[in-house]
Amino acid sequence: MPTAEAPYRRIANDLAAQIRGGELKPGDKLPSTRELAEVHGVHMNTAYRAMPLPHDRELITGQPGRGTCAAERSGR
């Protein structure tokens, strides 16, 4: 029986797909944790837990006073 993907991973993968697909361009501000929670129908803690995954993949970056944005793409 297949195991369902954890909600926080689903959110992280959705953000990654939006960035890689060009829907979120470098420098674009990501939705707030509250907005992500509402869109995905999860608790804010679950949305918050999703954020380190795209950050570790260097897809997003936090900017003090500005929020979390899609990272500049490297030449990979």
Automatic annotation (TrEMBL):
Residues 5-73 form the HTH gntR-type domain. One of its GO terms (biological process) is negative regulation of DNA-templated transcription. InterPro entries: Bact_HTH_transcr_reg, Tscrpt_reg_HTH_GntR, WH-like_DNA-bd_sf, WH_DNA-bd_sf. PROSITE patterns: HTH_GNTR. SUPFAM superfamilies: Winged helix' DNA-binding domain (SSF46785). SMART domains: HTH_GNTR. This is Regulatory protein, gntR family. It comes from Micromonospora eburnea. The lineage of its organism: Bacteria, Bacillati, Actinomycetota, Actinomycetes, Micromonosporales.
